[in-house]
Design goal:
The protein has 320 residues and is of the alpha/beta class. 38% of the residues lie in helices and 17% in strands. It has two domains: 151 residues, Periplasmic binding protein-like II (D-Maltodextrin-Binding Protein, domain 2, 3-Layer(aba) Sandwich), CATH 3.40.190.10; 120 residues, D-Maltodextrin-Binding Protein, domain 2 (3-Layer(aba) Sandwich). The strands form three sheets. The protein has a six-stranded mixed β-sheet, sandwiched between helices.
């Protein structure tokens, strides 16, 4: 299907359906729910990861494999690790019972939690904290000094279900009186943090939304020159993307998982360098002492970004 025809179908579906279709999902009937696995060799716990940071599927899986291998050695629980094709696809896998453990962004976790198919398991800990930051970055040659100054400019955003490359950047723009669908010159839905930063680096856009972790990773990989970019806005602290369990997992399995993540930095079979988190970054460990209230508070940060707003942004992006 040609892009214009696809967008016509997408936009005719209405804002909520548009968001789902844009995330690579179907508004049709979901797959039949499946029984949750028990972690045995015959029924390994199915782990699904969001495709964070635009990395390869193998790269994202390799970030987490040492952690789950160490937990396997310590607990006897078996795992089958896969990477979702989109943030929305990870939500659907959990809610259809096709996964037992998921690694989400905060926004996608809240979606799954609201549908009764996710329960917090653990957050990464780095330097005593379990938070990260979203930002809006602009090219220095774009002549932009504030979020309000983005009116008429070319803007890149990530996955529509991403907390820090879509929802929070959009919320920060709206709080500054700049509504992307109404005020941007063009919007480029890049699909990931890395793609947003690439578009910014190559001058395809004037500004874009991404996490500071992703920006740091791009700078270290020499994918973007920090001398050419300025920070227009930095968010309040956001809880790290959480690992979550399906609520229907057996209580004994949940307890073993929580204890293992609390002690991952002490388990045999894994080095400190192998303990990774968001964007493949090194972290000090994980904690299961996580708060649903903190996650709900994160959702308040982007409550301005309604389904209507998301649909309007997708419509704007499809018009160019």
């Amino acid at each position: 299907m040609k892009f214009k025809s696809f967008m016509k179908t997408l936009l005719g579906a209405g804002p909520i359906a548009a968001v789902l279709i844009a995330a690579g999902l179907s508004a049709a009937a979901p797959a039949l729910a499946q029984a949750q696995h028990d972690g045995s060799a015959a029924k390994p716990l199915r782990v699904i990861l969001i495709p964070a940071d635009g990395g390869t599927e193998d790269g994202t899986r390799k970030d987490f494999q040492p952690i789950f291998q160490a937990i396997n050695q310590a607990t006897g629980l078996n795992f089958d690790i896969k990477v979702g094709q989109s943030y929305g696809a990870v939500v659907e896998a959990m809610c259809n019972g096709a996964a037992d453990i998921a690694w989400y962004g905060p926004a996608s976790y809240l979606q799954a939690r609201g549908r009764g198919c996710a329960e917090l398991l653990a957050l990464a800990v780095r330097k005593g904290e379990s938070v990260y930051y979203s930002g809006v970055f602009a090219r220095k040659d774009a002549g932009v000094d504030s979020l309000a100054g983005l009116k008429g400019k070319r803007i890149a955003l990530g996955d529509v279900n991403s907390t820090s490359s879509f929802n929070i950047p959009v919320a920060m723009m709206m709080a500054a009186g700049m509504e992307p669908a109404r005020d941007a010159g063009t919007i480029h839905m890049a699909g990931s943090h890395a793609n947003v930063l690439t578009a910014l680096s190559e001058g395809l856009v004037d500004a874009g939304g991404a996490s500071f972790d992703s920006f740091e990773k791009a700078v270290n990989a020499k994918a973007i020159d920090p001398a050419q970019v300025k920070v227009l806005a930095k968010s309040m602290p956001i809880p790290y993307p959480p690992l979550a369990m399906h609520p229907k997992l057996a209580d004994g399995v949940k307890t073993r998982l929580r204890e293992a993540f609390d002690n991952i930095h002490q388990l045999p079979g894994i080095t400190k360098d192998q303990i990774r988190g968001y964007g493949g970054g090194k972290v000090d460990g994980y904690t299961s002492k996580v708060s649903e209230a903190d996650m709900a508070a994160a959702g308040k940060m982007f409550e301005l970004v309604t389904d209507q707003i998301r649909g309007d942004i997708i419509r704007k992006a499809g018009a160019h």
